[in-house]
Write a structure and sequence with these properties.
Keywords: Secreted, Signal. It is found in: Secreted. This is Cyclolysin. It holds the Pfam family HemolysinCabind. This protein is mainly β. The chain has a domain at about 35-160. The chain contains one helix and 33 strands. The strands form two sheets. It has a 17-stranded mixed beta sheet, with no helix packed on it. Strands 1-3-5-7-9-11-13-15-17-19-21-23-25-27-29-33 form a 16-stranded parallel beta sheet, with no helix packed on it. The N and C termini lie far apart (about 125 Å).
Length: about 375
């Protein structure tokens, strides 16, 4: 009896002490969610979560890491650096000279009105430049770079890219892939490395250059537009259109089609079976000796008047006009220009188009070409 009375206070005490077990009716305190970092009016460094975040920074020079997830970040004022990292992000630089890095995912980068730098990195990205002098790198993927006004530089890099320069003197370099480049107004330089690209210079004195080696035969389209343009084809079968202005067209390799358009143009076919049309204006056509693989066809040679054309022939120092001859093609108004060396005659050019009946050696100018071996 004494034992029971002695133990009773201990039993009652045990009922009042929590020794680590959980009662069935016990309710745990919920974990409060972590709030995203809040921007201030100063220069912030903000590291967002890996979820889908939305953040508008304030007016300092901010550095924002968006993390994984589909994020929307606006830099607002200041010279901001916004890193999208993973996910399909929307990064807006807004005011200031900003740096936007998309990271992985299909990102939209909008630099705003000033001089911004944008890098889409991996994914099919969209880069929007505004009116400043912007620098854009598309990275891997099929990217669209719309750089807007200003003197911009855009690099598509790998993928099938679209590059738009807008108003200003722009440099657009698409890199490899099936690309489309449009310089817009201004004196632009457009470069691509694909064999089937479209390059449009727009108004202004533009330089269009395809740096390819002819892995396909479909060829690129180069359209200089208005202005005094310089167009150079690549290794495939290219089409070069000079448009209005005094243009220079170089077909390079491949079976090319060259059309100078209005103006006093210079057309050089290069290797391959080339077709050249001067258009309105006093044009200069070029062929050379020794004759490279292929042939040269001129469709609209004008022999007399203020817009009389000239056929220049690049030759060695021992070639004279006496080595050349003009032969009429029976049943047509076409003529052929031949070079004769001993008993061997080689066609230099086939001239057609109905206005060639007066073509003679007086329309030919020999230009001595110095080879590397002779220097």
């Amino acid at each position: 009896m004494l034992y029971l009375l002695t133990m009773l206070p201990l039993l009652m005490l045990g009922a009042l002490v929590d020794v680590g077990g959980h009662d069935d009716d016990e309710t745990e305190t919920p974990v409060e969610p972590v709030d995203p970092p809040q921007p201030t009016s100063g220069d912030d460094v903000l590291d967002l979560t890996d979820g889908d975040d939305t953040l508008a920074a304030l007016y300092g020079d901010d550095l924002v890491y968006a993390g994984d997830g589909d994020d929307s970040v606006d830099g607002n004022g200041g010279n901001d650096t916004l890193r999208g990292q993973g996910g399909d992000d929307h990064l807006g630089g807004n005011l200031g000279e900003d740096k936007l890095l998309g990271g992985e995912g299909n990102d939209t980068l909008d630099g705003g009105p000033n001089n911004d730098k944008m890098d889409g990195d991996a994914g099919d990205d969209s880069l929007i430049g505004g009116n400043g002098g912007d620098l854009g790198h598309g990275g891997t993927g099929d990217d669209v770079l719309d750089l807007g006004g200003g003197n911009d530089s855009g690099y598509g890099q790998s993928g099938n890219d679209t590059l738009l320069g807008g108003l200003g003197n722009d440099l657009l370099d698409a890199g490899p892939g099936l690309d489309s480049l449009d310089g817009g107004d201004g004196n632009d330089t457009l470069i691509s490395e694909g064999d089937s690209d479209t390059l449009i210079g727009g108004d202004g004195d533009d330089v269009l250059n395809v740096q390819s080696y002819g892995s396909t035969t479909s060829g690129s389209l180069l359209d200089g537009g208005a202005g005094n343009d310089d167009l150079t084809g690549g290794g495939a079968d290219d089409t070069l259109l000079g448009g209005d202005g005094d243009d220079q067209l170089y077909g390079s390799r491949g079976d090319d089609t060259l059309d100078g358009g209005a103006g006093a143009d210079t057309l050089v076919g290069g290797m391959g079976d080339d077709v050249m049309t001067g258009g309105a204006g006093a044009d200069v056509f070029w062929t050379d000796l020794p004759v490279s693989e292929g042939s040269t066809t001129i469709t609209d040679f004008v022999t007399t008047g203020d817009e009389a054309d000239v056929l220049q022939v690049g030759v060695g120092s021992d070639v004279t006009l006496d080595d050349l001859s003009v032969v009429a093609v029976d049943g047509t108004e076409d003529v052929q220009l031949f070079y004769t060396d001993g008993d061997v005659s080689t066609e230099l050019a086939y001239i057609t188009g109905g206005a060639t009946s007066g073509f003679s050696l007086e329309n030919v100018v020999l230009v001595e070409v110095v080879t590397i071996e002779e220097v």
